[in-house]
Amino acid sequence: MPGPLRIRTEAIPWQVYPGDRHWFHSWGQVSAPGSQKNTKCKHFVDPGVIEKVLAGCADNNWRLVIVLTRLCGLRIPSEVSRLTWGDVDWHGRRLTIRVRKKEHLDGHEMRFVPIFAEVEPYLRQAFDEAPAGSIHVLPRRFHREGYVYAGILRAIERPNVKRWPKLLVNLRASRETELMKQYTAHLVHAWIGNTEKVAEDHYPMVTDEDFQRAASRPSAIPTPEPTPSTRATAHQESSPEMQTAASPGIPEDTAVSVPPRGVEPRFSG
User: Fold this and answer.
1) Cys-Cys crosslink for 188: which of 56, 179, 234, 238, Cβ 3.0 to 4.6 Å?
2) For residue 266, what are the CA distances in angstroms to 68, 101, 269?
3) Is the Cβ–Cβ distance between 105 and 43 less than 8 Å?
4) How far is it between the farthest Cα atoms of the chain?
5) pTM score > 0.90 for this model?
6) Distance of alpha carbon 6 from alpha carbon 17, whole angstroms
7) Is the distance from CB of 173 to CB of 185 less than 8 angstroms?
8) What is the mean pLDDT of the segment spanning 160-176?
9) Cβ pair 156, 50 in contact under 8 A
10) Domain layout of the chain by residue ranges
C-alpha cells in the first residue's frame, strides 16, 4: 500500500490515504467540520403513502422489509438482514435486533422492539410462507443494500408515488416522529436505537397532522360571556322599536326637538 500523503493545514499534520475517503489526524479519525444537520432533507412519509407503496410491492417479503423499517425502525440492510426467526418472540411480542452499527459498544450490541399490531400480519405471513428449516426472516438476497434500495424504488414508482429524500433514513425518522407523540422519550430511543442528541438533530419532524390537531383543539383561554347589562345594551342598540326620527337609537320620550337655525324659540324659559 502506498504511503500516506502528508498535508499541513494550520500547522496540524493530516494524512490522506490514496483511495480512502477519510481524513485522519495523528490521534484518530476526525469528523468533517461544520454541522452535520440537514433539515432540508427531512420528510415525513405519511401512512397513506406507505399504503400505496405496499400495494406496489411484488410480494410479502418486500412488504415486510418496508414495514420493518417504517413501523419498527430497523436499519436497512444491516438490521433487517440479521433478523432471524429465533429473534421473534411471539409470546413476548417483541423482536431482538442485532445492532451491527454499535456492536463494538458494550451494552449497545442489541435492542428490543415491539411487534406492533400493524406489523404482525406481515410477519406471520412470512413465517407461514418460509421454507422448512429457514433461519433468517428474509431470504439472503435481501441482505444486499443495493438490491433492497432498488426494490423499494421500484415499489414507489409503480403507484407513481413521488420519491422522498433520504429514502431509508426518513422511513425510520417518520416512525420515531409518530412514536414520540404516544410514548415517553426513553422508550422511543430504546426502540429506535439512537441517542437523544442524534434523535433531536436528525429525526423528529413537524407534520400536517400537528397543525390540524392544534387548529381543532379548543383554546385554553376562556371566551368571555356577555353580562346582563351588555345583553340589554346590545338589545337596545339593535331594536327597531327604540329608533326615532329625531335621533336614532334614543327613546322617543327623551328625544329633544331642535328648532331650525335662525328662528327664535316660541317660549322663553
Assistant:
1) 179
2) 99, 106, 10
3) no
4) 124
5) no
6) 9
7) no
8) 93
9) no
10) 1-29, 44-211
